């Protein structure tokens, strides 16, 4: 960063800390407005210009004229980043996965050893299978970095695949220890995160060919848990504020299990539950840190009651052993209705305590279905058939059609007449109404049962493509409805984001209603509002002092 820009960002940060502490963390729009009006700012034309420009861009963002990166990389965006980074108490990262949150600096030296070792050919082939022919040779940190980040336009399937490189180096207890220590240190020093809920795979064995990892035959579930525990404990000894939760995660796809050794998914899952409980019996010091589980993976085939059967008894056993159940649901779906249904059944059958993602409960059905209809009509006019299995195809198939003839024409690419378009619109309208009704019903039950929800804006936008832009993320709407919320990054390296960036995205997405104090409270899990005010004031003292010193 050039010196002048750095100076500007610093000046902005000082002013931002002052105004936020003096106004007790009101909304971003109001904060900027008051800042721009102040006499002191008017005296400094560079700072004033920057604030005016940012304010303008922020408005542009709300009407799709400006993208999020423009805001994040603007000097005011950077100053706000600095503000959040300096906040006196650290943040609570509620949802982070091990494999997508290890950076290239961690992976490269370990991978290099493997690629220079005796199994070089096996590793190269595996890597090519997942990342393509061009992925080899890997000669630098940058080469690794390039492979482990999701590219523009790549979505969910690719996302699960590219976590592979990190999995290759997590082969024993020591590497798990190094990994959790490295993660804790990175997150704290770079993003002021001091509490981590880490999701990780307990059982590394699989019969899915592309998921198989050479060299991990010997690693036990115990090694994984103890390794991660040791790494976090080590960081905690150096930083006593640090807190962590180890949350073993289980793939929930009904076809994802070790079919060589188990008859059914249920048998395999029960065995994993046994093994987890045995580990805790053997090492009871782990209990306070391992007291919840999560289910992850592709949920598109997991929405009906029967789909939830395989894991039901295992989860119940865990509950009776004091575990809380968290679940990735409503993240992806075949149709929006099924996306709501999957959350509904996860609540009813698995009795989940926390919903991870839950995006199907935040999409506005009227917008979603209308925009879907627009895309379909555009194709229809061009006489394009709908591709089997595509989102449009699935939604059209699932609607209750008033006129079957119209449905066939839409699927087959026969242009609709004006009357038929009206018929399509009516079908779409009633579908949206019905799903909206269902969605509110499930959301209200969730609020009633105090099931909490973790919001992951970047992950949601990049992976689902189901809502148009960051500004449409439902966080603020959920907040107003009274949903118990948390914030997470999912796989921050894969998704090229970080905890503070996620906070900024939430703030920029609702600059009018979301209060800075509220965001700080949700992100730190500090419930005492006056204490937050006090901390803001402390921050002000520090920064004003810092400004006087050279
Ligand atoms: Zn996740």
Automatic annotation (TrEMBL):
* SUPFAM superfamilies (alphabetical): Metallo-dependent hydrolases
GO annotation, cellular component aspect: cytosol
**Cross-referenced Gene3D superfamilies:** Metal-dependent hydrolases
- What is an annotated GO biological process for this record, any one? inosine biosynthetic process
GO MF term list: adenosine deaminase activity
Note the superkingdom of the native organism. Answer: Bacteria
Q: What organism does the UniProt record list as the source? A: Halobacteriovorax marinus (strain ATCC BAA-682 / DSM 15412 / SJ) (Bacteriovorax marinus)
Name of this protein: Uncharacterized protein
């Amino acid at each position: 960063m050039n010196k002048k820009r750095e100076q500007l960002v610093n000046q902005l940060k000082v002013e931002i800390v002052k105004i936020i502490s003096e106004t007790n963390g009101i909304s971003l729009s109001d904060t900027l407005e008051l800042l721009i009006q102040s006499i002191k700012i008017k005296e400094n034309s560079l700072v004033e210009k920057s604030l005016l420009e940012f304010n303008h861009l922020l408005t542009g963002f709300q009407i799709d004229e400006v993208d999020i990166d423009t805001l994040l990389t603007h000097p005011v965006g950077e100053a706000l980043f600095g503000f959040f980074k300096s906040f006196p108490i650290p943040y609570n990262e509620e949802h982070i996965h091990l494999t997508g949150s290890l950076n290239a600096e961690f992976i490269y030296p370990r991978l290099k050893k493997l690629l220079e070792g005796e199994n070089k050919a096996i590793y190269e082939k595996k890597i090519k299978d997942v990342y393509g022919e061009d992925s080899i040779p890997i000669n630098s940190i940058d080469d690794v970095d390039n492979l482990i980040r999701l590219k523009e336009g790549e979505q969910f399937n690719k996302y699960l695949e590219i976590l592979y490189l990190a999995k290759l180096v997590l082969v024993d207890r020591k590497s798990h220890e190094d990994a959790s220590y490295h993660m804790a240190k990175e997150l704290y020093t770079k993003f002021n995160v001091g509490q981590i809920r880490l999701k990780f795979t307990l059982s590394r064995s699989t019969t899915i060919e592309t998921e198989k990892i050479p060299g991990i035959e010997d690693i036990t579930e115990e090694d994984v848990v103890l390794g991660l525990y040791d790494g976090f404990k080590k960081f905690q000894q150096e930083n006593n504020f640090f807190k962590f939760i180890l949350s073993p995660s289980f793939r929930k796809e009904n076809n994802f299990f070790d079919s060589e050794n188990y008859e059914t998914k249920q048998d395999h899952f029960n065995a994993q539950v046994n093994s987890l409980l045995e580990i805790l019996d053997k090492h009871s010091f782990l209990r306070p840190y391992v007291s919840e589980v999560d289910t992850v993976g592709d949920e598109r085939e997991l929405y009906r009651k029967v789909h939830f059967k395989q894991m039901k008894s295992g989860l119940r056993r865990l509950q009776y052993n004091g575990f809380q159940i968290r679940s990735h649901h409503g993240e992806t779906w075949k149709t929006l209705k099924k996306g709501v249904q999957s959350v509904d059944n996860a609540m009813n059958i698995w009795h989940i305590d926390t919903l991870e993602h839950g995006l199907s409960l935040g999409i506005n059905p009227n917008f979603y279905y209308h925009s879907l209809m627009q895309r379909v009509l555009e194709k229809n006019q061009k006489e394009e058939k709908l591709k089997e299995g595509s989102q449009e195809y699935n939604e059209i198939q699932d609607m209750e059609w008033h006129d079957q003839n119209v449905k066939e024409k839409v699927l087959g690419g026969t242009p609709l007449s004006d009357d038929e378009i009206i018929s399509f619109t009516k079908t779409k309208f009633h579908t949206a109404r019905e799903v909206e009704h269902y969605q509110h019903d499930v959301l209200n039950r969730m609020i009633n049962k105090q099931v909490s929800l973790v919001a992951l804006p970047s992950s949601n936008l990049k992976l689902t493509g189901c809502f148009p832009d960051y500004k449409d993320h439902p966080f603020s709407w959920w907040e107003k409805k009274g949903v118990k919320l948390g914030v997470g990054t999912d796989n921050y390296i894969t998704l090229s984001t970080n905890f503070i960036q996620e906070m900024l995205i939430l703030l920029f997405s609702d600059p009018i209603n979301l209060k800075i104090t509220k965001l700080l409270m949700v992100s730190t899990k500090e419930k005492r509002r006056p204490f937050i005010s006090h901390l803001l004031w402390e921050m002000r003292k520090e920064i004003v002092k810092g400004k006087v010193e050279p």
